[in-house]
Amino acid sequence: xxxxxxxxxxxxxxxxxxxxxxxxxxxxxxxxxxxxxxxxxxxxxxxxxxxxxxxxxxxxxxxxxxxxxxxxxxxxxxxxxxxxxxxxxxxxxxxxxxxxxxxxxxxxxxxxxxxxxxxxxxxxxxxxxxxxxxxxxxxxxxxxxxxxxxxxxxxxxxxxxxxxxxxxxxxxxxxxxxxxxxxxxxxxxxxxxxxxxxxxxxxxxxxxxxxxxxxxxxxxxxxxxxxxxxxxxxxxxxxxxxxxxxxxxxxxxxxxxxxxxxxxxxxxxxxxxxxxxxxxxxxxxxxxxxxxxxxxxxxxxxxxxxxxxxx
Length: 311
What we know:
Blueprint: H1 7-28, H2 31-57, H3 65-80, H4 86-108, H5 113-132, E1 143-144, H6 159-182, H7 184-194, H8 196-201, H9 206-232, E2 234-235, H10 242-255, H11 261-277, H12 288-298, H13 302-307
Helix pairs in contact: 1-6, 2-6, 2-9, 2-10, 2-11, 3-4, 3-5, 3-9, 4-9, 6-7, 7-9, 10-11
């Protein structure tokens, strides 16, 4: 009698199937859908980075989009001044996002609960108003990039090639994040989420662990910002606003907190809902409320939980 298929095998099989489908998308659909899916993958990276904080460390940040916006602005400003090499601009943007996350985390992680939520939101608003005040770079209106960054051997001005670059980066981020949460470091983070006082009593430097996770998450969000700027060729302060952080949090909750796969599913669902329903009404988010309500009541792991049942 054959043994039942385990949830781990189903999960791996599902992920592999999704990856294969993503590989063949350009062969099946036109430019519009390629650009839409590229946007989904970019927001998937940003939402996954937030899930490292919310789902694995228990840190609910309402200012996470600030790092996405900073990554986008660094690439855009460098392009504005003639630096278009991705080998220079992209790592620099991620480093600036990481350094900013280190500063914000050093200050905000000394608070907990609602105070942590409020201080991260306050930092996001500070950065939002700072970039809004830069008249050289469009102020409140933002500014456009003249062209995408240049990669040696590739022309990412082509939507299909850029899509595969995004897919490669998303896959790499997903694999690295998976290894991170399964490592000793990830186990400690989950222990902090479950019982921070106990982890302190066991001698773990909890603040250092949380700050490291905060910097990693900020770096990944900055990487998403890099891709976002190159995708739309337009950078706006709106990407740093706390409401954008709210969008990322909705993606995490919608897809499934603490699952890594969930945030990408959440990004896909939210952006697809926006694309379809906004054609009929500008109040499309009214349909999002009941969906979130049902998921919170009946789905512990969001959309992901309906496909994979974990013990």
